[in-house]
Design goal:
mainly alpha, 13 helices
């Protein structure tokens, strides 16, 4: 089967109209097609796609573009929340591990669980140092400490995926202690949530679509929560709530902004396409413990 040939912006617009998309402002639509990859934008038409390849009656370009804008703004809110969690996690992992095993304790495979891939960790660290060799703190440790980095320094170069794996590969007793003290839950819950948060953050950072998307990995549901988590964006936002370091800030910043965003686009978005149940506000309201 041959790959499809490229088509012009005008042809892209014509194709949308042929499928039943209503375009009231062709100049606006063409401008947006010049700014947003057709392949990316048409993914937002998927909830309107019928079996015969046409769009449901009443599907408008402007309406789908509003969904696209909602999705873009939602990614921004999520990234801001993830930043707070990630910075706290860097701090707490380094503090706990360095105080228990020493500043360079992360270099010893014995300080992790038996099945930890220590060679992979060290290789990632070496690659991170090489990528960031121009940074002043990296040069400082190379010039003054023979390239030895205490954990609280090197952890600043970890990706969020590496932070997730670092926690997952710690000794069970260490994970249990951190999970209980930081998140008031089990280490298995936290391991699952950090993996999901890393996947969500990477999707948002690469502008992946959240609307009408299933992530494939189902987060762990905390005991006694009363709602079974799935793999939609709502459930991943719940994970952020479980991990967020400041409940009051979660309510005053993230929740207020999320509520305002949904209200702004309520006339366009379908809450089912982001997995939001009817009681979403109650579920996202901070509680004393996830369980």
């Amino acid at each position: 089967m041959q790959v499809k040939p490229p088509i012009t912006f005008d042809a892209q617009l014509d194709k949308l109209k042929e499928r039943g998309c209503i375009v009231t402002d062709e100049a606006f639509a063409r401008m947006k097609l010049e700014q947003i990859n057709y392949y990316r934008l048409t993914a937002y038409f998927l909830p309107s796609l019928q079996a015969d390849g046409t769009y449901k009656p009443g599907t408008t370009f402007e309406g789908v573009y509003r969904v696209y804008e909602f999705d873009r703004k939602l990614r921004g809110l999520i990234l801001a929340a993830v930043e707070e969690i990630e910075l706290m996690l860097r701090t707490q992992l380094a503090y706990y591990h360095a105080h228990k095993y020493g500043a360079l304790g992360y270099m010893d495979a014995a300080n992790f669980k038996p099945y930890h891939n220590h060679a992979r960790l060290l290789e990632h660290i070496h690659q991170a140092i090489a990528r960031n060799s121009a940074k002043p703190f990296v040069q400082h440790h190379i010039q003054n400490y023979g390239g030895k980095f205490p954990l609280w320094a090197i952890i600043e170069l970890f990706t969020i995926g590496e932070l997730s794996r670092f926690f997952a590969d710690m000794h069970r007793a260490d994970k249990k202690a951190l999970a209980r003290s930081l998140f008031h839950t089990t280490d298995s819950n936290v391991t699952s949530w950090l993996l999901c948060m890393a996947n969500l953050r990477n999707d948002c950072a690469h502008y992946a679509r959240l609307y009408y998307t299933m992530f494939g990995t189902v987060p762990a549901t905390p005991g006694g929560f009363g709602y079974r988590l799935r793999d939609r964006v709502f459930d991943y936002i719940l994970v952020l709530k479980f991990l967020y370091p400041n409940p009051l800030q979660w309510q005053n910043t993230f929740m207020n902004a999320l509520t305002a965003l949904i209200e702004e686009y309520r006339d366009t978005i379908d809450m089912r396409c982001i997995g939001f149940p009817a009681d979403w506000e109650a579920l996202l309201t901070p509680t004393s413990s996830p369980g």
